[in-house]
């Protein structure tokens, strides 16, 4: 293609590289030789001699360069074969490699075959796109492998790659890595040559730092992009920088001289409501949890109270936890301000230097409990931070918080009682005879005060129990296997539900009772669009529940040796009045209580969502419309009547929010914002899936391996495969509904193919998510909210 801004013409791979070779200075294009298929078929021996004469007898790579690979409408990236490490001195092997590449073509005699020397000692290989593939937002996307030493791992999706996003207008001086600077300079040169045509670039870097250009093709999905995105993102970037600076200023009752924002620490909004939730889910989560309950519940247990502070902030519709506020709520009450300031700053500094711990802060950064490993962990992580007197004060205050939690007749008993009261009074809190909005408000208010608050207290106690049992293992009081055996013996409401699901699956007469107890559950707890169990006609269709078992059949008891070990640790840390059995009972009660409390308060939440849905029907508001309107706007008619046509007013709110969310998805923000640099230069966590399209689908999940029969019907299912291998392209001819892969980056073959086909996908989920999904029967793939999860448990 010829871009209007340049005379340089991009063509088939071989032709493009030949034309670029004399023009590039920031990269090297290896010597090349190419020929048409028709020439090969006429006289392969002549072609082989020309290859040997031109490129020598060393290691070669025979590459596809079909005419349809890099057209203006289809990239076909990775569709055809390339054969690396071909012995150029062995004519038979060379012929066999070329024949294999030609055989992978569609039969066009004018297709080209490209042969180049095989570049040795590659230390980095990758793909760079000059804009985000999904919508053209102005970010350079670097998807690279610096571990395997291979040149095709990104396009084949055969590993979990590393990804870096850089805002196109970012200050070049913010880039600390010399190699990333060299990559960016290579890209800038190619953009200048190609007239700013959006590019998809394949490259490799040798051990001596030399950059080799393997391909530069146009991004074919660019024709679908909204050209106004770049200007809007530029404006948003300015506002985000200012917000972060202002958020970093001193705040009342908050210690620490800086702020860090993350989507995974503490109450973990990314997991609960998604990375880009609708306004209703975000406002509900704020009202129920992150506005007040997160801090008041901890204050009731003896932790510092950062009064009036909200834990969650929204940036471009994306929820972030203010980690500074979170860390403040883990300080034991009564510390001298100087000590509190030192601790919070040290915790923030550790997270800054260890961003991989962003979802593990309560175990690996902040000591929220004085467990059996407190001394060694604090010394290892924060040696010399506090004076002897300050450390003694801190340890004493933390011990007081810990003892308050462990001893009976405290906040745990009160919280468990509150949950029981809420459960007992459920039928009396349905608030019959009042308006649907009044009922929704009452359900949410009682759910927060009588459900979420005690749940937060119980969950904090459960964490304390977990910390003690982990530290006991680390100190050798029991083995890891015994610790796991104990956890497997726990009986929770989820264990009971599994049994009841099994029974109802086998006996349809038991299903009404199942729905009465569990019908309020939905895969997306805060998502009004997510159907409840009692709304799912297919809940029991073609399901194959796992084996029944609650652990109660094999009660866990400490051995006498383990009891002695635990007792010694308890005495060492000044908890001699607590018996080992009491500690395990505490763990059992809190684990079961946490799940039960969540089960009970979500009944109120689910009921409120259904009230909103029923109310919306009268105004012709769909569940999707309602998901885009905050709870405060939905409840506005209760205290401030809408002084215009109500249906029109709410429709306008939904339409505006829909536009805002569509734009917010063009912003690329990382999991952790440690300083302003992270707003423009964004390393992507390895386990973050790359979501393609903005669609939301649910369906049967089918796992495929390389041995699966192609004759199997896959129409309408979501395919789950290990890696984004081009050999799986046949699945796109079978009418599949979506795709989930374990490996593969934002620029992998499957990502590009799904973007072209507008097929919803989660590419590169990582091991933990993938293994959980692989064993599921149904999956919920929400590319909008950037979530992929099993549909039903049981």
Description:
- The chain is α+β, with helices and mostly antiparallel strands.
- The chain has six domains: 13-224, ATP-grasp fold, B domain (D-amino Acid Aminotransferase, Chain A, domain 1); 232-366 and 668-684, no CATH class; 368-491 and 556-620; 493-535, no CATH class; 621-664, no CATH class; 686-790, Phosphohistidine domain (Glucose Oxidase, domain 1, 3-Layer(bba) Sandwich), CATH 3.50.30.
- Helix 16 (411-424) packs parallel to helix 22 (580-617).
- The longest helix has 39 residues, at 436-474.
- The protein is globular.
Present the secondary structure layout.
Layout: H1 13-20, E1 33-36, H2 37-42, H3 44-55, E2 59-65, E3 83-87, H4 91-103, E4 112-117, E5 122-129, E6 139-145, H5 153-156, E7 162-167, H6 178-194, E8 199-206, E9 211-218, H7 229-247, E10 261-262, H8 269-272, H9 279-290, H10 293-299, E11 312-315, E12 318-322, H11 323-328, H12 337-353, H13 361-364, H14 374-382, H15 388-406, H16 411-424, H17 436-474, H18 480-488, H19 493-506, H20 511-518, H21 560-572, H22 580-617, H23 623-627, H24 631-634, H25 646-664, E13 672-673, H26 677-680, E14 681-684, E15 690-692, E16 696-704, E17 718-721, E18 738-741, H27 749-757, E19 761-763, H28 767-774, E20 778-782, E21 787-790
Parallel strand pairs: 16-17, 17-18, 18-19
Antiparallel strand pairs: 1-4, 2-3, 2-4, 5-6, 5-8, 6-7, 7-14, 8-9, 10-12, 10-13, 11-12, 15-19, 16-20, 20-21
Features:
6 domains; globular; about 800 residues; disordered N terminus; seven-stranded mixed β-sheet; six-stranded antiparallel β-sheet; alpha+beta; single chain; D-amino Acid Aminotransferase, Chain A, domain 1
